[in-house]
Amino acid sequence: MIRLAVGTGNAHKLAEFQRILTPVIPGLELVASTGESPEETGMTFIENALIKARAAHHATGLPAIADDSGIAVDALDGAPGIYSQRYAPSGLDTDNTALLLANLAGQEDRRAAFVCAAAFVSNRGEVTVERRWLGTIATAPHGLGGFGYDPIFIPLEVDVTAAELPPEHKDALSHRGQAFRQLAEEILGLLEG
Fold it and tell me: One of 68, 93, 150, 171 is an active-site residue; which one?
């Protein structure tokens, strides 16, 4: 059995990590970090993912994973980017989504990408991976699945929002799925090497 600490308090992400990583790392047990959430002072997704993974590793003594992810919108010069979770003052998903839609009102260029930086930290070293999921921003929310900006993100591969995709389909396409599947291979190499 492989035990990994997870540097997130987000139950949605924890469930997603479990779905994505278990097929690649059999016998995986994810352990929520009991440490205090660190301040995300990085200027990039990778820097913030490392901050969270290092904090979880330090708090638990276990090898740890974490991610930092968000949405980058072309017409907004990459915003909200690393500030995606706290784009609106409340930080609530519905408010973040509403603010993004308001800021894109009347904008024809609706290209965007979900970005995920995944980090692994252990006594044997650190590994990071960053992946992007390309799509466009809808004009209104659709779908009840997922979380965050999923109800307004339409991936290039489909004609529905990420919130309308079954979880397994979303995991197969998503920025987080791409990043953590690659990270899983790196984790196995480090832990077995």
Answer: 68
